[in-house]
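Request: Give me one sample?
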Amino acid sequence: MKPEISDASAYENGWKHRLYLLALICLLIPLLGGAARFSETRTQENGAIEIRNPSVQVSGKSMELTLPGSVRGLAPRTPVSVSFTAGPEQGDALFLHPVYSPLDVYVNNELVYSFGKEGSYPAFFIDPPTGAFSVPLPRTGAAREIRLEYRSPAARNAISLYAPVIGSQADILSFLSAKYALTLILSVCFLLMGLLLLTASLLFLRFERRGKLLRYPGALVFCAGLWQFGENALSVYLTRLPSLLYPLAFIGLFTIALPLYRQTMMILSLQKSRLLRFFLSLLEASVIVALALQLFGLVPFSRSLYWFHFLLPLSLCVLAGRILLEAVRTRSGYAIGFFLAMLAIVVGALLELANYYFRFSSITSLFQICLLLFVLICSVLSFGYMSLIFMQTQRNIEMQREIDVLERSIDAQKEKNNLLLEHAEEVRRQRHDLRQHLNVILSALEAGQYEEINAYVRELTERIPVNRDVTWCDHPVANALLSYYVSSAEAENIQCEVRAQIPATLPHVSDGDLCVLLGNLLENALEACQRMNEGPKKLTFRARVQGELLAVTVDNTYDGKVRFYRGKYLSSKRDAPGTGLQSVTSVAKRHGGEALFESGGTTFRSNVYIRI
C-alpha cells in the first residue's frame, strides 16, 4: 500500500518531520559523545588493572602478543599459556573473559579454577560458551605467579585472548560498567521496546488489521537487543548464564534481517519482487540450517557466523537498493524516508562487521547506534503512516454510516413509492367500481327508492379506505427519512412530535448531505431512546427555513449516561468520538453552519444550522 496524502496533510507531516529531525540531532549528539566517553578504559581511576603484555606461549613456544589479541592457525585444543605476576597490593580477584576456550587458572602452580569442563555446558555446543567471571585470589604476603592455561576452540582455528583484569570485586564491576554498560543499557532498552511494540501490535489488531505492521519493527528491535545482550560481557558476568546467552545472541543476530524484509515488502507492496523473495527465503533457510547444525552438534553457531557475516550485509544492501529503486520509480516521499532509515542499518552492519575483523574502534555499539537512528526515523514514518491509517479508518466508518443512512432513505422512498402504486391501483379499481355504483344509484333514483339510496351511500362511505400516509414536509428526501424513522420510533413505543418546514428544493445543499445530516440526527435520537430501560421515551424534531439558514433541532430522551472527552461526545459503542455527530458537524461546517450538542437531565438536544 502506498498512502496518498493531500497537500494539507503533506504540509502538516512536513513540519512534524522537521521537528523530529531536530529532536533526532539533539539526541544523537549526547548519545555519540557518551559512546565515545564510555569507550575509554580507565584502569587507574577505579583501581582495576588490565594485564595487556603478559608472557604468552603456544604449544610451549613463546610469542609476543598484546592483549586483547588473537592467535590464528591453531589445531583444535592447542594449549595456549598466559602467565604474569601479581603483587599482593593489586587486589584479591581476577576477571577473565575466555571465548569458546576451556581454561584452567593456576596461582603459584596450584589449580584454583576451571572453566569449560565437559559436562558444564550442552554437548551440542562443541566448544564452551563465552565466559565472563571473576576468580578470588588467595591472600599471600608475597607476589603471586598466575598462569592461565587455555585450549583453543575445536570448531575454530584461532583463539581470542582478552586481557585479564585484577582488582577488588567492586573495581572489576566498575571496570566492566565503564566498558560495557552503554551497550548493555541499549540492549535492554531494545528488548523492552521490542516487547512493547509486539504487545501494541496484538492490541491494535483488535481494531485494525494493519496493526500487524507494528509486529515487524518490534521483532527487529527485539532481535537486535537479544543479540547485543547475549554477547555483552557485563550481562554474562551479572547473569552467570553463559550457556543460555550464547544461543540467544546468535539467534538474535541470524534473524535480525527477517522482520526488515517482511516490513519492507508489506509497506511498499513489494511482495511480488522475485529478488526480495529469493533473499528472504535464503535468510529463512539459513537460519533453519544453522539451528539444525548446532542442535545436532555438527557446526556450532560460532562457525555459521562466517556465513551470516557474508549473507546479512549482502541481503541488507540488496534490500536498500530495492527500496531506492522503488523510491526513484514512484517518487514517494515515504519510500525515500524508508530508504534513509534502511541506509542507517546498512552502514551500521558494515561498520560492525569491519570492526569485528579489523578492530579499528573500541566502540562496541556501532550497530546499536545506527539501529537507534533507524528506529527514530521509522518512528516518524510509522507515526505518519499509522495516523493516515487511523484517519482512513475513521473516514471509512463515517462513509459506511452515511451509506447506511442513504440506504434507509432509499428504502423509505421505495416504501412510499409502493404505497403510491398501491393507491393508484386502488383508485383505478375504485373508478371501475364507481360506474357500477352509479348505475345502481341511478336505477334507484328512477324507481324513487330514496331510503335504499341513503343506506347504500352510507355503506359505500364506510368502505372507502382512510389515507394514513403523512406528508411531513415538501422535500422528498427529508419526507422519506422522517417517514422511516417516525415509523420505526412508533414501533418502539416512542412518542414522536414532528414539525418540519423544509422546501421542496434546497439549491446549494445536495440530497446526500441533507440525508447524512437528518439521518444521523434521527438515528442517534432513536438509538438513545431505545437504550432507555425506564421512563417515557420521546423524540421531537423541528426544522424550518429562516432567511438563508435551515435550522434543525432534535430533542430526545436518553438514560442520562454520556461520555465526554476533549470537547467531544464519545460513542456508546467504542472509545472514540461518535461517528454520527462527527458526520453532522462535518456537513454543517461544509455549508457554512454549525452543530451544537447539549445534554442535561434526561434530554439530549442537537442544534444544527446550515446555509442554503
Summary: DSSP finds 14 helices and 19 strands in the chain. Residues 1-21, 26-45 have pLDDT under 50 and may be disordered.
